[in-house]
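As a warm-up, study this chain.
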Amino acid sequence: MQPLYTDAEFKAAKTLDKLPLECKQCHGKFHVLKHDILSHLKGQKKRPFSFCSTKCSRANEDPPITWQCDRCGKKFQRKQSQANRSKSGKHFCSQSCGAKWNNAHKTKGTRVSKLERWLQEQLPLLFPGLEFHFNRTDAINAELDIFVPSLRLAFELNGIFHYEPIYGPEKLGRIQNNDERKVLACAEHSIGLCVIDVSSVKYFKPIKAQKFLDIVANLIRTKLPGDLPASSPLPSQNHIEVP
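Now compare it with the structure written out below.
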């Protein structure tokens, strides 16, 4: 209890007069009956009158803690009770960072298909000297499934959701508009974009996925001098569709 009154004011006050106290949490002023303060001083009331409200009392019990975002490394403040709600045990400075981390680490229900994950494992084995960026947004400020920075070559693996209104026409329209923006962004950044239709893949099997790996690998080889004969050039246009 932090009084904002003097001893003289306390003595002059009547029993039902309210005297000012300072809130321990927000440092604001609030008032308590002299009768209740006397009861507290005599030990008859255990309530210390330290807070102006229940909100301030709870905030003091659960003060903000400084955390470091598990995705971007930014420091931020959040209460322990809020941090405890994290199912992954990770802490993020924003919903955006949380969503991006979850999308990259989910084992089920993720937008990254088993086919994409398999390709992400196989391509570095086929081309150990190349740097691959998978599902990153730094090239065009939008996510590219596969991007080879040194070759300025990108691949998008479009499943059934890019062609049929599985979740309704509005959702399909948004997906296709986003696809078109990626095409334009790649052209602006001089990135060759190959869009591969993988909607025929209902269930993942390596034997079915091999043809898509061959498509990607062959197009990469056309950009590597001397790996393939000149009869198999990469099409000159920026954006090609592979059914």
